[in-house]
Every structure is written in structure tokens, then in C-alpha cells.
Inverse folding.
């Protein structure tokens, strides 16, 4: 095997992770069973809003197998869960941050709000005992819709947040926008609901907390996307423990999509209680619990307007959004409808003036936070629905109206803070149109019409900001954390390499992609690279995985560590080869004296570093183990065009996706198969949002009506077409991998593409406007209404 | 789940006496019952497993009727050459139930004994004018289904088979609820010796029948058990 075969960048190498997953040999949090562990069950509020008059645990405490029962009142000295992003309002005041207790104190504010935790020898005993707990509630009126929650007379959730308002925030130049609208030839207006979603990772949340009296320390296994963040928030802000005394391990995790970023009450209560009973405590959510108590996504109500000149050139955009926060502020909730949303309203376009105002509201529902795309699907939906509607209203073809407004010179400073580094929007649009066979659409539409069906074509040219983020920029925008990443490359004496990364893989395939990056750079086989993640006891401090940042930020941290490895390797090689350091080249796994054939293999250098007999000990330390922390200099900007073709049966309202084509620019691609998998998954979730999924709370009682898969429609394979996905590459200009990230793109572009297609199909039936999800019931009703 | 006793019956008589003694529930495929037990919405105390009783299985032709044993799975009905030839609509209906895993476990006896208003089989039993055979008697379809989740069965009565008279023609079409894929509306129409029969399984309103209509209502929310 030649050295070049070891460079696997751009190859669809089979995933290292899959062997254990396919054989059921993974180790997930629920697989962890410390000796003598106990089981926790959480008692949750059945009411959306109520005062707690009394909690009587006397009968429950004597039930078989019960070791302890704790309520909010028992958690003295335990602070509330913090929010990690401070948003400052248009009034210059900080956002309202009402207490977010670990277990309810005095009041419950959503169905599912944790009231007590029962710890027993078996899960069934804990559940049986929980049924004996008597909670005396004084039920209060509830409000679940964010617009309703702002109305005068709405039930008030928190004393510290009058009118249920968390903040009103704005971005952009209102005066310039108003002036542009005054002169516009055409104004397109839309009212949009971005439907609330429940994340539904295949693995429910779980935690196992153990306390050790020997050294007063804790070990927590938890389904987290970011164990260091979890540890920092829990120890420093909530439990008042030294970070050094808590080890957080996120082993194999079955999907996160954002829902496993946050610090939740459950694992916090378990850690706290584990010391009190001095036995490990285990908790795994039941699926109905996941529905109730995982952070939900989206839930925006928006009014948006686009001003155009008579040629369809965008002059300005103004957007007002009411965003639900849920009953309490989750860890990143505040930045999703602001920093990660409004800053994307330029889309791929040269719109010179944009103004966005967002009001965030507390409602008697589960907390809302990032969910695949986190603010960018919402932004793309607003922009692309406006563009589609404008094109339809002004009778400008959908591709044409986009071309008239594409950004073509880079770097490009948008009017909403972001500086796009590079992109090639025309190329993606052209390619998407080609693979979607847009040319043949008219004929297919006519044919469908003969069969009594309505066909439609919808475009979404999306852009997103990922690879979060430059820490100083984030800090200036209110982040209470840094957003760098860490990577340690430890070369072992026998030449294998262990990489410790702050990124976390919960489906992304980092063990494979990162191995490809390291192996290719060092000229060693992929099998010789081990990726370690998820354990605060082993990895340097990292911020974790979300926002499509792992390759761009985590991968670059590893590259920087590799730079240091190679630099030191050159010094060692220079000594061994008796040459000047400047004359040493490193290529294909060999350190060579330039212009000669005298070389040393990587493995020889590794051994020399650890057995430093022939070694410049006076100038250089032994060992070959380097760490780098990388703070990105900008966001990255994946972008592309998705085109969806649908066929609607007007008699039943059923929307069938005939074709879905995507051309995405993710910068350089390390493993095309993994990228394609990410796109497929994102598209499935985006289509799920547009066609099927909706989290519904009863407006009167606040009960969660979509509490199981009986009523929450998850996308299945037969709901989806065979996707046609392809990529174009404009490498990211500011990281050495040239990578932009790809994890969320599908979820960002698909809803707009699909709904634009549905609107296109239904325009023939006179339907002007439809919100997601386009269920048969809603489509059919829209068609009927349009007839009258 | 709450704790329960599990018994495996060897014969129908054995099952009937176990049910009477234990006051528990008969277990066929468990596709509705086990789910309800996991949510603690059902607490039977004892389960009498019928799956080992050979007499409850099998599909055969008896005169003008297709007789399907109560413990025959949906997958077996869907793939049966006999059913596909004699009553193709019934095979198609069985094929449309749930998903592959559900069809491999769920049974016709279990389905009609449970009488979920969104299930498919009751429309077939009613629409085809079938007869439900139990260990005690024969019950005509028109007399079998009483109300939501309610049938004419006595506590210790076990369905042994369902016999379907072969119609001249029949068809079943359902509009699945997108989440559960249960029938939002399912209609079976049959041209039988005694005229045209139409059975509708549906979600919204109850309505009284004059012409063998059957509409049922299903609640759409999952409420947790009462808390004070």
C-alpha cells in the first residue's frame, strides 16, 4: 500500500462507529449499571399552571423499596438552572431571567414540570411510590400561545417577567428600512407560524450519578452533547461544587439535535441526591416523558414584509417575530430567535436594509431551545417564503427573482452583522435545477392535471451561519461562554495516535472523519488513530457539538495540534538525520531532508520521542503530545438551493413529494458518505416539520395533546422520496480544512422548499396561504375555503 | 407496567378457567394491550397467554365461508392464498394494518375483542356480515360490537374464530391518520347475498345506524392517570 493510499480526504470511508452500533455493542447511558445502583422516577405536574399548596409524601416514603423522596423544598442551597446567553432589550435593559428551579418551588408552570423525585431499588417501585404522593394544586388559568401570552389579562407565569415578556430585541436599521418601503414598487407581506416541534432523538435522555465518599467526588454519565459545558454549569452555577470533583461522561449518545445540549433538572437532581443517599442513581426517560420534558423547538409567530423595485430587486425587509421561550429559560433559549435568526435574514441576497424585532415570551409549555438548525430554519423560512410570494405576485420566475438578487462578490458584509466569507450561489441554483429537471416540470404538471392532481415546484436558496463562533463576537452579542474548541493529539511510542477532542459525536461520525483528518495528515493508517470524546476526565475543555461546528472548529483545533506535532517532529528528525531543521520536509508520513532521499518514517520519530537516547535533550523535551485551542475568526456559511416537487390530491389534501433535489456547498468535504447521511437526515427532519410534525398544547387547559406517536406524526421512510443530493465546493477561507459544516442544512432548506412547492401547487386552486404542517386536513380545508 | 401474573394456557378450556379464576385478561398478540400496560393505562393483574393454543390458529374454507382462527396474525391473513382468492379485500385490509412488526404479532381475535374505534378489522367483520365464534356461542357481527372498546363478550368468553361468508365483491379503503396510521376513516363495502353492506370506521361523531352504518369516535389525546 503506497503512502498516498493513506490520504483518505474526500473518500467515503466506512464508519468506524458502525460495527459496535450494528451489533448492539454500543455503550449508552442506560447501559451503565454501577453496583448497587438505585432508580429515580420524577413526579411531574399534570397541570399547565398551578400553585403547589402542599406535597404529602408520607405514604410514598414507606412504600416498598423507597430510599428517598425529594421535592423543591428539600433542595436548599441549590440554585436554579442558568441561561447561557444574555440578550439586551431595545430598552437597554437585560432580559428577564426568572428563576428556573431544579424541582418546582411553589408553582408549576407546564405539564411535565418536575415536582418531586422518588428514589427506589427498582424503577417499578419508584413509580408505584410516586402514585402515592399527594400533591394539592390550586389550578390557575394557562396560556400556551406566545401571542396570547402577551395580551393584557393573560395568566402571568413569573413575578419577575411582567406581561410574560422576556425581552424585546432588535437588529438592523429601521429608518433605512422604512425609507426603502416608502419608495417600493411592490411590497410582499406574509404572516407566518413556524410550528413547534418535539425533538424525538431515538435515545431518550438518561443519567447515572454516582458519589464517592473516598474523595468526595461525583461521576455523572449523561446523554449530553457537551459534557464540559454540562459540568461547568452544574457545578459552578447550580450545585456549588468544585469542577475538579465532578467527572461528566457522555458515552455513546443516540442523537441529540440540540435537545441534549442543555443542563436539565433531572441529572442535576440525581447528582445532588447521589451524595445524600450515598448510592448511584439511575434515570432513563420514558418516551412520554421525553415528549413532555425535552426542550422543544421553533414556535415563532412572524409578520414579514419585503420591499422590491419594479424589476424585483429587493430593497428592504422588515420582520417582527414573537418567539415562545416556554415556561422557563433553557440554556441557550434566548439567542435562538435573535442572534441565530435575525442575522440570517439577508439570505443569499443583496437586500441593503433589514430590520428585525423579536419579542420573546414565556408560555405554559415546555422550555424551547435549539433544535436542528436553531434559528436558521426559521430565518430561511421567512426569507424564502417572501421571495416565493414576491415572485408569484410580480410574475417573475422563481429562479430569476433569486438570480436578480444573489450576492456575487465576497467577502460580503450583510446589513445584519454577518460577514460572508465566500460562496457560489448561482452554481448551486443551476445544479439543483438540472438535477430537479425543472425544464420538464411543465409537462409533468400538465400530465398530473389530466389525472386530477395538482403539481407544484418550490425553491429554497438558503444560507446559514455555523462553525460557531468567534468568542469575542459571541461575547459582545451576549454569550456568557467562549465558543472555541480544543484538540489534543497524543502520539504513542509505537506510532499510533490518540486524539482527545472537545467535540462530541452523537451520530455525526466524528470517530471516522476526525481519524481521516489525522491519518491523512500524518501519513498513517486510519486504524492507528483513536478518537476520544465525551469524558471530562480525559479531554481538554471543549464546548461540544451543535451548530454544525465540529469539523470547522473541532477539526481545526486538531489541525493546529497536528501543526505542533509536525513542527516538533521536524526538530526530532533534523537531529536524527543530522540536518538543519529548515531543510526537513514532512510528506506522506516521512520526514525527509529536502533534495535527498534520506528520511525517517513517522513511527521512527514517535519512538525516538519516547525513547530519547539519540535526542537533543538539551534543546527539546521528550514526548510527542500537543494540545491546541482554536477560536474561530468568523462563522462559516454553508449555502445551497433545494428544489422540491410535490403532487397534491385535491380530494384528500394528501401532499406527495415526487422529488427533492439539493445542491449544497459545505466547503471541503472529508467523507462524502457521512455528508450525504447528514443531508438526508436533515431533509427528513425538515420535511417532517413541513408536512407532518406539530407539537400541540390545548389552548384552554395547556395539556399536551400530541403526547405520543399516536398523534405526533414522525416522518417515515415511505413519506420521503429518494433524495437527489449533490454538492459544490467553495472552500471556507478561514480554517485550514476549508470546511463549513453540513449537519443542519437539510432541516434549514427543506421546509421552505416544500411549502413553496405546496403553495405553487395550490395556487391553481386559489389558495393563497398555508402554514406548516401541510397535513391533508389543512390542505383540504384550504382548498375548500378558497372555493367560497 | 404494574406487576402481573403470567399464565400460558394449553387449551381453550384451560384458558377459560384461568381467566375465570384469575379475573385477568386474555393475551393474544399484545399489540394494544401491552402498549396500554406500559403506559399504566391498563392493570390486568393476570395475563392468560393464548398463543400456545393450536386450535385457535389457521385459516380454512367451510362451505361458503372463510373461517379464520382467532390467533391468526394479520401477516398470515394478508399472505394467505385462500383469503386472497376468496375475499381479496380482507387480505388487503390485513396488509394495511400497522406495520410489518405489528402484523407479525397482532391477531384478528385480539383486534375485534379490543374494538378500538380506529381499528380496521371491525369494519370487515361488520361489513362482510361475519359471525364471531366463541368458546360459548356464535355471535352475529351486528350484535357483537357494542360501543367504544366494548363488545358482547362476557368476562370469561374467548373468541375462537371468525367466519366470513364469501361475498360477491368487496373492497376496503382507508385514510390513515398520518401519525398513528390507524384508520381516520376506513370503509368496507361488500356485495353480499343479502344485499350491499357498508361499514365505516371513523374518528369523529357517533351516529346511529339504519343501514348497518357503524361510526365510532376516538379520543385523540393521551391523558395521564388522575393526580389530585
Amino acid at each position: 500500500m503506497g503512502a498516498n493510499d493513506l490520504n483518505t480526504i474526500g473518500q467515503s470511508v466506512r464508519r468506524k462507529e458502525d460495527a459496535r452500533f450494528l451489533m448492539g455493542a454500543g455503550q449508552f447511558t442506560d447501559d451503565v449499571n454501577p453496583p448497587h445502583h438505585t432508580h429515580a422516577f420524577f413526579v411531574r405536574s399534570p397541570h399547565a399552571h398551578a400553585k403547589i399548596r402542599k406535597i404529602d409524601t408520607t405514604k410514598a416514603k414507606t412504600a416498598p423499596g423507597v430510599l428517598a423522596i425529594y421535592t423543591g423544598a428539600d433542595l436548599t442551597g441549590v440554585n436554579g438552572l442558568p441561561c447561557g446567553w444574555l440578550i439586551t432589550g431595545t430598552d437597554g435593559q437585560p432580559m428577564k431571567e426568572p428563576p428556573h428551579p431544579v424541582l418546582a418551588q411553589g408553582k408549576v408552570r407546564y405539564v411535565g414540570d418536575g415536582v418531586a423525585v422518588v428514589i427506589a431499588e427498582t424503577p417499578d417501585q419508584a413509580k408505584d411510590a410516586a402514585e402515592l404522593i399527594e400533591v394539592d394544586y390550586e389550578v390557575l388559568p394557562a396560556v400556551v400561545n406566545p401571542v396570547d401570552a402577551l395580551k393584557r389579562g393573560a395568566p402571568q407565569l413569573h413575578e419577575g417577567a411582567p406581561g410574560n415578556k422576556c425581552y424585546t430585541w432588535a437588529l438592523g436599521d429601521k429608518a433605512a428600512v422604512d425609507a426603502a418601503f416608502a419608495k417600493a414598487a411592490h411590497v410582499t407581506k406574509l404572516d407566518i407560524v413556524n410550528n413547534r416541534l418535539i425533538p424525538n432523538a431515538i435515545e431518550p435522555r438518561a443519567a447515572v450519578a454516582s458519589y464517592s465518599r473516598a474523595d468526595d467526588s461525583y461521576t455523572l454519565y449523561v446523554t449530553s452533547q457537551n459534557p464540559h459545558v454540562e459540568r461547568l454549569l452544574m457545578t459552578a452555577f447550580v450545585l456549588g461544587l468544585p469542577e475538579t470533583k465532578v467527572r461528566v461522561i457522555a458515552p455513546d449518545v443516540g442523537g441529540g439535535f440540540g435537545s441534549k445540549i442543555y443542563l436539565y433538572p433531572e441529572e442535576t437532581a440525581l447528582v445532588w441526591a447521589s451524595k445524600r443517599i450515598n448510592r448511584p442513581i439511575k434515570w432513563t426517560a420514558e418516551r412520554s416523558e421525553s415528549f413532555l420534558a425535552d426542550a422543544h423547538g421553533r414556535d415563532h409567530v412572524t409578520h414579514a414584509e419585503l420591499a422590491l423595485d419594479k424589476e424585483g430587486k429587493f430593497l428592504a425587509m422588515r420582520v417582527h417575530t414573537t418567539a415562545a421561550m416556554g415556561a422557563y429559560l433553557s440554556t441557550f433559549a434566548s439567542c435562538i430567535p435573535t442572534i441565530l435568526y435575525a442575522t440570517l435574514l439577508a439570505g443569499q441576497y443583496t437586500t441593503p436594509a433589514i430590520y428585525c424585532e423579536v419579542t420573546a415570551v414565556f408560555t405554559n409549555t415546555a422550555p424551547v431551545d435549539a433544535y436542528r438548525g436553531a434559528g436558521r430554519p426559521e430565518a430561511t423560512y421567512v426569507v424564502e417564503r417572501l421571495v416565493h410570494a414576491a415572485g408569484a405576485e410580480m410574475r417573475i420566475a422563481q429562479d430569476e427573482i433569486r438570480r436578480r438578487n444573489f450576492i456575487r462578490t465576497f467577502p460580503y458584509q450583510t446589513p445584519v452583522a454577518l460577514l460572508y466569507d465566500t460562496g457560489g450561489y448561482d452554481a448551486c441554483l443551476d445544479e439543483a435545477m438540472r438535477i430537479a429537471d425543472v425544464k420538464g416540470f411543465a409537462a409533468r404538471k400538465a400530465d398530473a392535471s389530466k389525472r386530477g392532481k395538482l403539481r407544484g415546484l418550490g425553491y429554497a436558496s438558503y444560507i446559514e451561519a455555523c462553525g460557531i463562533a468567534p468568542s469575542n463576537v459571541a461575547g459582545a452579542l451576549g454569550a456568557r461562554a467562549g465558543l472555541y474548541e480544543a484538540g489534543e493529539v497524543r502520539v504513542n511510542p509505537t506510532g499510533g495516535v490518540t486524539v482527545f477532542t472537545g467535540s462530541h459525536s452523537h451520530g455525526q461520525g466524528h470517530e471516522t472523519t476526525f481519524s481521516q483528518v489525522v491519518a491523512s495528515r500524518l501519513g498513517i493508517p486510519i486504524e492507528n488513530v483513536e478518537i476520544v470524546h465525551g469524558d471530562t476526565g480525559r479531554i481538554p475543555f471543549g464546548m461540544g457539538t451543535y451548530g454544525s461546528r465540529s469539523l470547522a472548529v473541532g477539526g481545526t483545533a486538531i489541525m493546529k495540534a497536528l501543526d505542533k506535532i509536525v513542527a516538533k517532529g521536524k526538530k526530532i528528525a533534523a537531529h536524527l538525520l543530522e540536518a538543519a531543521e529548515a531543510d526537513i520536509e514532512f510528506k506522506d508520513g516521512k520526514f525527509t531532508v529536502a533534495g535527498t532521499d534520506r528520511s525517517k518514517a513517522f513511527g521512527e520519530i514517535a519512538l525516538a520521542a519516547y525513547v530519547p537516547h539519540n535526542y537533543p535533550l538539551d534543546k527539546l523535551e521528550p514526548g510527542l503530545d500537543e494540545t491546541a485551542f482554536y477560536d474561530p475568526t468568523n462563522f462559516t456559511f454553508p449555502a445551497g438551493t433545494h428544489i422540491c416537487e410535490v403532487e397534491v390530491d385535491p380530494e384528500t389534501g394528501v401532499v406527495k413529494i415526487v422529488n427533492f433535489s439539493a445542491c449544497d456547498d459545505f466547503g471541503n468535504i472529508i467523507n462524502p458518505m457521512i455528508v450525504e447521511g447528514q443531508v438526508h437526515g436533515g431533509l427528513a427532519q425538515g420535511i417532517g416539520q413541513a408536512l407532518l410534525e406539530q407539537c400541540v398544547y390545548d389552548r384552554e387547559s395547556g395539556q399536551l395533546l400530541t403526547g405520543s406517536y399516536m398523534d405526533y406524526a414522525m416522518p417515515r421512510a415511505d413519506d420521503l422520496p429518494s433524495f437527489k443530493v449533490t454538492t459544490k465546493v467553495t472552500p471556507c477561507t478561514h480554517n485550514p480544512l476549508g470546511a463549513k459544516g453540513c449537519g443542519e442544512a437539510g432541516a434549514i432548506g427543506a421546509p421552505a422548499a416544500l411549502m413553496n412547492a405546496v403553495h405553487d401547487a395550490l395556487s391553481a386552486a386559489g389558495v393563497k396561504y398555508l402554514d406548516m404542517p401541510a397535513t391533508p386536513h389543512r390542505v383540504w380545508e384550504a382548498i375548500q375555503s378558497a372555493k367560497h | 407496567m404494574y406487576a402481573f401474573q403470567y399464565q400460558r394456557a394449553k387449551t381453550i378450556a384451560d384458558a377459560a378457567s384461568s381467566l375465570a379464576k384469575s379475573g385477568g385478561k386474555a393475551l393474544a398478540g399484545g399489540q394494544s394491550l401491552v402498549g396500554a400496560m406500559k403506559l399504566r393505562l391498563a392493570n390486568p393483574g393476570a395475563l392468560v397467554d393464548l398463543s400456545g393454543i393450536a386450535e385457535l390458529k389457521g385459516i380454512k374454507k367451510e362451505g361458503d365461508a372463510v373461517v379464520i382462527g382467532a390467533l391468526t396474525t394479520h401477516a398470515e391473513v394478508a399472505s394467505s392464498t385462500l383469503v386472497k382468492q376468496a375475499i381479496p379485500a380482507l387480505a388487503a385490509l390485513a396488509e394495511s394494518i400497522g406495520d410489518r412488526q405489528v402484523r407479525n404479532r397482532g391477531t384478528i381475535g385480539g383486534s375485534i375483542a379490543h374494538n378500538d374505534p380506529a381499528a380496521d378489522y371491525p369494519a370487515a367483520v361488520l361489513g362482510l356480515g361475519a359471525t364471531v365464534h366463541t368458546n360459548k356461542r356464535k355471535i352475529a357481527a351486528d350484535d357483537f360490537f357494542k360501543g367504544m372498546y366494548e363488545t358482547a363478550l362476557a368476562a370469561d368468553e374467548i373468541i375462537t374464530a371468525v367466519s366470513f361468508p364469501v361475498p360477491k365483491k368487496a373492497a376496503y379503503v382507508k385514510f390513515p391518520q398520518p401519525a398513528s396510521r390507524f384508520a381516520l376513516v376506513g370503509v368496507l363495502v361488500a356485495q353480499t347475498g343479502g344485499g350491499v353492506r357498508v361499514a365505516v370506521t371513523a374518528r369523529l361523531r357517533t351516529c346511529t345506524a339504519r343501514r348497518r352504518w357503524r361510526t365510532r369516535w376516538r379520543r385523540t389525546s393521551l391523558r395521564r392517570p388522575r393526580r389530585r
Residues 550-576 of chain A form the longest helix (27 residues). Chain A touches chain B at residues 46, 124, 127-128, 131, 134-137, 288, 652, 692, 698, 703, 705-714, 775-776 (CB under 8 Å). The CA atoms of residues 691 and 771 of chain A lie 10 Å apart. Chain A has 19 helices and 28 strands.
